[in-house]
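Researcher: Good morning. I'm working through a list of sequences from a screen, and I'd like to move beyond sequence-only analysis. For each chain I'm collecting a predicted structure so we can compare shapes side by side. This is the next one on the list. No need for commentary yet; just the structure.
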Amino acid sequence: SVTPHMVTVYLENGAQKQEQQGFDASQSITIVTKDLERIVKANKNILAVQSEGHPITAGDPLFLVGNLEEIKMSLIADATANARKRAIEFVKQDGVRVGVMRSASQGSFYILAEGASSDSDDYGGVYDKSTINKIAKVVVTIVYNIQP
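Model: Good morning. Structure tokens for this chain:
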């Protein structure tokens, strides 16, 4: 888009008025690529252009997970298997055994910067888009029947 560039001009009598001094132009672009290093390099180049005094602005790049649904399904499968193993450990001392699953639900899903914590009280999860390297976590709740 192109808009007039307006500046405030102060007159000799103390009054002020707006005058047009050229135009401001802006354009937004989105780049989708798997070549993440190229995006990082391009972002650094924008910073270099800015440091030379050119009035260019750019947002930080967003790094998304391309195979998110596959990761979710894998994490849910692993969490379900792990929940059964944990339930079996819990009941070992009591002389009972874990029966069939009564219910299961998926809670929050987290995609975090590598090394970050997911200590959060929200139920919507977290999706870090600012870093390349990420970890993914899912919260599942599974209820089993207990059998004598």
